[in-house]
Structure formats: C-alpha cells, structure tokens
Amino acid sequence: MTLKAVRISKGITLNTVIFPLTWHEFLNTLEKKGYELAPQLPFPYPAGRFSASGQIARKGKTGILVNAGANIIQIFDISIKSAGEEFDELLRLLVSDYGVDLNAFARFYSFTASYKFNTDKQASQTISDFCIFPSLGEISKIIGKDVIPFGFRLGAADVLPNDENWFDIRIEPDVLRNDCYTIEIVFRNSDKEIIEEFINTIESNLNKIIDLIER
User: Fold this and answer.
1) Which of 86, 104, 137, 213 to pair with 58, CA 20 to 30 A apart?
2) Distance, CA of 29 to CA of 94 (rounded, Å)
C-alpha cells in the first residue's frame, strides 16, 4: 500500500489592498530562480504594481499561480517537499533582493493536496464498512435502492468552511479503480507555525487514517 502525491500547493493570502510587489521585483525574482515566465505576460514589464492573474511561471514540475486582485500567491508541485522549498525560497529571495517580507503581510497561509493511496483491498467496500451509520437503511428505503457510503469528509469542528482557520479532508474510492483511494485536503491558517506543523505531519497521519479504515 502506497501514498502518492498527485498535486500539492502551498500559498499565502495577503492582507494588503494593493499587491505589494512591482512587475520588475516579482518577475525578476522568478527568473533569477530559473522559472520560465508565461508567454502572455507583457514585456517589457510595465511600471507599477504587479497586476496579472493566473499561472505566471513554471520550472520543471513546479508552477506559480497568482491572483493579484485577491493578493494570493500559490506554489504548485507534485511533492510536499519541493512545494515547500520553492515557496520558502521565493519569499526569502524577495526579502534579500527587495526588502519585501510577504510574511509581514500574511492574512493566512494555505495548503491543498491531492493524493492517491493504492491498496490491496476493495476500496469501495472497505470505506462502506467503515462508514456504516444507523439511518442508512432508511435512506435506502427513501431512494428505493440499496445504498452504501461512497466516502467521507472531515472538517474542523469549531469553525465554518469560510473561516480563515479551516481544514477538511475527503477520502473516497477512486471512481475508475477499486484498488485505490483518492484523498483531497484543504488547510488554511493565519499562524505560520500551525500550517508548517500540519504539512510536516500530514502524510504520516494519512497513512494512520488509512490503517484505521482498513483495520
């Protein structure tokens, strides 16, 4: 049984009204780090604050997505290690090159992830057995057909989904294969140490959750 990352992102949402980097500052730093800029970006760079949105750069399997209007920067990758390293290095370079510390403007940090977990069990039946609840038979009668739980979703108990400090984890059988679980994660927090702790432990914790499901 193996856990494999499919898509990882680490990001920051800023509390500023105006994006705190100019075109030259932001794009020069990305090029310095070896990123290939998206061809739709204007050149020569405009004067003033960076204002583009979308995927603006790529290096190998790492991409940078920005929404300047919403003050969001996200690093996408296929491994938790490289996404974190690229994110931290970008913020470090912006401080050393231009004196802009994005951590000082952080409203909250975000982490999202998609995983596949291959198993030697029947994924749909395993999750169904794990998620049985008392009203399932009544729901089957209402629908007129036997139903089973096809997955489950866990959310933070003390906050709402639109709060800054939110998380949820969704686990379900792969819709195309019955020897695999799909896992989707969203985690947001205004405290950098809390999100780092979550990121550092999430993969080992996912393995423990799957062990519990299959016990």
Assistant:
1) 104
2) 7
Beta carbons of 140 and 132 less than 8 angstroms apart: no
Kindly report the three-state secondary structure assignment for every residue of 147-191: CCCCCEEEECCCCCCCCCCCEEEEEEECCCCCCEEEEEEEEEECC
Per-residue pLDDT tens over the stretch 63-72: 999 999 999 9
180: three-class secondary structure by DSSP: strand
CA 201, chain centre distance (Å): 14
Between CA 55 and CA 15 the distance in angstroms is: 21
Contact 181, 174 (CB under 8 A): yes
Could you tell me the pTM of the whole model? 0.91
Distance from first CA to last CA of the chain, Å, rounded? 13
- Helix or strand (DSSP H, E) at 22: none
Q: What structural domains does the chain harbor?
A: 2-118+152-214 (3.30.70)
